[in-house]
């Protein structure tokens, strides 16, 4: 049966690949992200009734507006995939207010805003999937805000699962490993990249030696999560890249 699935951060990276995978099964995809042109390009590519809605998940007003649009076009939401995130290296001692707020609001508060907006449109059998990062269990320099915000998201997922169980709504955390793809860009200066490499070296970490998967590989797992039997839930999934 076709489901209505909302995906945040759907214009690029993992979000886009998940949309491509799920569209192949005939689901109706609602693509959220900050850049409407990217979302519309994905919607046109996958077809099947997919539509794009501009949304900055770090803004409560933007999330409310986006879900009002969804409510006007879709009778219900079956699945919410909180995928949107910001991933930029910086030292806490040098961090600007904007960098701190961006990391916390997008990676942690944003999913909460989206869950709050989606729950009234979800019935029994609804499913919330929150995308985390394996960096939660592998601390490294210059990503303390990213890692801690994702750790908070994992704890939120656990508590939310207990809260929504009585309503028949499932909650799953997907902890993703290192990924890459055609649009994998950090938009950082060579100076910052050099500082990051040096900081990792001082900490005895060589992230370049760790395996990396393509975005399309973990995206395939979401098809399985969407099709779980109604009497089962996977509360936590760790997708680890491996050397080939």
Low-pLDDT parts are: none
Query: Which percent range fits the helix content?
Result: 40-55%
Overall structural class, as computed from helix and strand content, comes to alpha/beta
The level 1 CATH classification is: Alpha Beta
Order of strands, widest sheet: 3-2-1-4-5-6-9
What is the name of the CATH superfamily?
A: NAD(P)-binding Rossmann-like Domain
CATH architecture field:
3-Layer(aba) Sandwich
Characterize the main sheet.
Answer: 7 strands, parallel
Tally of separate helices: 7
Number of strands: 9
How large, in whole angstroms, is the Cα Rg? 18 Å
The H/E string reads EHEHEHEHEHEEHEHE
**What is the count of structural domains?**
1
Given the C-alpha coordinates, what overall shape results? globular
**Mean pLDDT level:** 89
CATH topology: Rossmann fold
Sheet-strand content, in percent, reads: 15-25%
Separation of the first and last Cα atoms: 36 Å
């Amino acid at each position: 049966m076709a489901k209505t699935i909302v995906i945040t951060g759907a214009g690029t990276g993992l979000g886009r690949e998940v949309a491509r995978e799920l569209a192949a099964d005939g689901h109706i995809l609602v693509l959220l992200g900050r850049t409407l042109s990217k979302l519309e390009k994905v919607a046109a590519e996958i077809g099947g009734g997919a539509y794009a809605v501009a949304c900055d998940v770090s803004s409560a007003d933007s999330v409310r507006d986006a879900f009002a649009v969804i409510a006007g076009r879709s009778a219900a939401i079956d699945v919410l995939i909180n995928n949107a995130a910001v991933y930029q290296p910086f030292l806490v001692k040098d961090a600007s207010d904007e960098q701190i707020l961006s990391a916390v609001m997008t990676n942690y508060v944003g999913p909460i805003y989206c869950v709050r907006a989606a729950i009234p449109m979800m019935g029994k059998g609804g499913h919330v999937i929150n995308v985390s990062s394996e960096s939660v269990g592998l601390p490294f320099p210059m990503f303390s805000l990213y890692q801690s915000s994702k750790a908070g998201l994992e704890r939120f997922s656990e508590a939310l699962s207990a809260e929504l169980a009585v309503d028949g709504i499932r909650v799953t955390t997907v902890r993703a490993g290192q990924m890459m793809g055609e649009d994998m860009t950090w938009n950082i200066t060579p100076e910052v990249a050099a500082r990051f490499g040096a900081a990792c070296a001082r900490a005895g970490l060589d992230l370049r030696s760790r395996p990396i998967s393509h975005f399309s590989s973990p995206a395939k797992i979401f098809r399985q999560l969407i099709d779980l039997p109604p009497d089962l839930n996977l509360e936590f999934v760790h997708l680890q890249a491996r050397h080939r």
